[in-house]
Amino acid sequence: MTQDRLPKTIPLFPLPATVLFPKTYLPLHIFEPRYREMVEDALNDSAEAARMIGMVLLKENWGKDYYGNPPIHPIGCIGQIMQVHRLNDGRYNLVLYGQDPFQVKKQFYDKSYRRAWIEPFPARPAGGRPAGEAVAALSDPLRSELVRSLQGYAQLRGWENQITTLLEMRLDDERLVQLLSSELDTTPIEKQFLLESEDLAQQSRRLIDLIGFMTEEYRSRKEANRPWNIGD
């Protein structure tokens, strides 16, 4: 999907601990009645938003008004319904595929679930292409730095085989960065920070910083739990 074809209005599915990234897959189990209606509407919509759901992260203290309309982070990601299985009791199992990031400009409350008028994120510069499309690939030094930081963290955690397998897949820069942003053990708010990057290079630098922080944090915890020996 190009940002020129971004739907103007989409249903919103806010969750407290889930951030969808472009070019990644997200399985979902839909059980609340309002979100069953959301899925039904998305599947039956013949307009530009057909089979599209806007995934957004709930802000802190969302539990006080979860069944109402608690505040959300305004930057989200469009998910296209790729697989759907309706269960006998009306629940759904879905698989979404991440499309483009968006910014919520206005929310609508005319249905049991929220809808939003959205615009592309990052915003389109006057007379130019979207800022988010300005950098489609990483420089060689930046990709190398990202891979080195990832390998160092993987070695510390004992994940060398998994990371070697990932790198052998030879993913393009965007798929690699988005997959790492989605799958690494960062917090939801850290993932939101990554999603809100202005371009792929900024997202990669933020990812490198987060991996460095996690590396030092894990090393410190490991050292703190190390048995003391006489003479240390």
Explain what this protein looks like in three dimensions.
The chain is an alpha+beta fold. Helices cover 36% and strands 23% of the residues. It has a five-stranded mixed barrel. Strand 5 and strand 6 (115-120) form a beta hairpin. Helix 2 packs parallel to helix 6 (200-224), helix 4 packs parallel to helix 6 and helix 5 packs antiparallel against helix 6. The chain is globular, with a radius of gyration of 20 Å. The model is unreliable at 125-132 (pLDDT under 50).
Low-confidence segments? 125-132
Oligomer: single chain
What is the average per-residue confidence, as pLDDT, rounded to a whole number?
Answer: 89
CATH topology of the largest domain: Archaeosine Trna-guanine Transglycosylase, Chain: A, domain 4
> How large a portion of the residues is in β-strands, by DSSP E?
15-25%
Number of helices: 6
What is the radius of gyration computed over CA atoms, rounded to a whole number of angstroms?
A: 20 Å
What structural category characterises the helix and strand content? alpha+beta
Shape: globular
Into how many domains do the coordinates divide?
Answer: 2
CATH class of the largest domain: Mainly Beta
Give the CATH superfamily of the largest domain.
LON domain-like
Strand order in space, largest sheet: 1-3-4-5-6
String of helices and strands? EEHEEEEHHHHH
Largest sheet: 5 strands, mixed, barrel
The second-level CATH architecture of the largest domain is Roll
Question: What distance separates the N and C termini?
Answer: 59 Å
Instruction: Tell me roughly what share of residues is in helical segments.
Output: 25-40%
Counted beta strands? 6
